[in-house]
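re: that chain from earlier
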Amino acid sequence: MSRCIAVASGKGGVGKSVVTANLAAVLAMNGSRVIIVDADIGLRSQDVLLSMENRVVYDLVDLSVGSCQPEQAILASEEIPSLYLLPASQFSRAKSLDPRRFRKILDYLRLHYDVILIDCPAGIERGLRNVLNTGLDEMLLIVTPDDVSIRSAERAVQVMETKQNIRPRLIVNRLDPMFVRSGEMLSAATVAQILDLELLGVIPEDPVVYRSILKHRLFIRYDCEARNALIRIAMRFQGKQIPLRTFTEPCRRLFRRSVPKALKEVTAIDDH
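^ sequence. v structure.
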């Protein structure tokens, strides 16, 4: 049975699209047939994150108006079997995507894919509401542990519940354990308590993530803390009972707190 999941955020810049791309890849590597639907009309990014930017000919809006067939618009990953992308239009606006036609596209995708991850536009405007009118099964909310992101997320949750009557599950992204231990940053548990949402997982701040983006590669291709955290999230997403890691455990030695870590060499796992 297919699952159609919207991945949203109250504001931009919290890592929603990066988390979506990498989560989809992990699920595909675990045996599911997964498609990402980039619904961020006018600001598409999934094609770049998945190294498909030079292969896009048709997009979601083209498919919705009948300018192409699904097999012409949907791209298969050349690196990860069973991972696919339906890219967004780069030069259209949210109003170009009719919610009824979008729902028909999702109904078609349900017949061919195990998991459909919809990368929603940031914020709570028309683009998000178009997605919420399509009959979703689940929703994920990506939040960073700061007041601005949390406030925006609170409003997004209200919109989601009004449209879908489903409470999203929470992923806290870019958490810095040192800042949490010093009291400068909220813990993931506190963020979940404020939003009153189930915490699906925590992804720590990790320089490898940004360096992987610069290389147009997914961070799950590298041995790093963010990768390990996302693997645990994917396992919970698939129904496995995996304990939550808080990333607030004290350092083993006080000396380590005063000496900055050396920049970790970034080597792809499959390059060994």
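The first strand starts at residue 3 and ends at 8.
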